[in-house]
Amino acid sequence: MPIPIYQVDAFARRAFAGNPAAVCPLDAWPPDALMQQIAAENNLAETAFYVPLAGQEADFHLRWFTPTFEIDLCGHATLATAHVLWNERGFAKDEIVFQSQSGPLRVRREADGRLTLDFPSRPPRPLAPDEVPAVLTQSLGPGAAAPLAVLASRDLVVEFATAEDVLALQPDFGALVALGYIGLIATAPGPDGVDFVSRFFAPEVGVPEDPVTGSAHSTLIPFWAAKLGKTELFARQESARGGELWCRLRGDRVDIGGYAVTYLVGALPNLAGL
C-alpha cells in the first residue's frame, strides 16, 4: 500500500521557518534499509516513522532517520509527528506517548496550540583541556571567537561570550566530522528577551547545519538553567530559518515547547518492488 507522507515545519508559527521534518505513518515496520532510503531521498534533517502500539503503555513506536543514520533522539521530528497525529490524523487524546530508543517520550497539546515535548535531560560535563578534541579550533572555522568552555554530552557543546560569536561561525565541516561526536552545539547568552541562542552542526550524520534541534536542548536546558539560576527559559536557534523554543527544566526531564505548521501532504507509491 502507498505510505502517507507529511512535511511539517517544526518550531515555527509559519511555513518556511523552523525545521522541516517528514513524517510517515505506518501499520507495521518495513525493512530498516527501506526507511533509510526514504530518509535519504527526502534529504531532510530527519524523517520520522511511527507504528501504533495497541494495548501498551505507549500509543506509538517512533523512530527517526537522518539522510545517512538512524538517530537515538530527535525533537523537531517528534514535534512534527505529534502535529500530524493531532491535525492530520484525528488523534483524540491531549497527550501522546511515544516509545523510542530514548525511552518513553510524551507530547502535550497546550490550549494555544503550542506542543510541549517531555524529553530526558542530558546535562553536559566540562571537558578538561586534554579531553578537548585537537581539531576543535579548526572545526570552528576562520576567525572564530575563543570558546569560554567546552563540554560534552551526546554532542560537543562550545560556549561563547556573545550571540554575535555564534552567528559569525563559519565551520569547517570536514574537521567537524573528526570531532568524534554526533554534533557540535555552539551556544551563548541571548539578546533582550532571549535567555540563550544556539546553532547545531552534524555533518557526520548528513546534516551540515540543522535549522532547529530539539534534542540539543536536552543538553542546553540544564546547562543554561544552572548558569542563569532559573528553570524556565526562552531560546532561539539562530540558523537561516530560525526557531523558537519554550524550555523548562524538571529534574531529570526537560520540557521543550514549540509550534508547527503542515507544509505538504502526499503519499509514497508502493515501494515493495523497488
From TrEMBL:
One cellular component term from this protein's GO annotations in UniProt: cytoplasm
Which residues does the entry assign to the active site, renumbered to this chain? E46
Annotated GO MF terms: isomerase activity
Going by the UniProt record, its keywords in alphabetical order are:
Isomerase
Domain of life (superkingdom): Bacteria
In the UniProt record, the signal sequence range is: none
Tell me which family the UniProt entry assigns to this protein.
Belongs to the PhzF family.
NCBIfam families documented for this protein: PhzF_family (TIGR00654)
Q: What is this protein called?
A: PhzF family phenazine biosynthesis protein
- Naturally occurring in which organism (per UniProt): Hymenobacter nivis
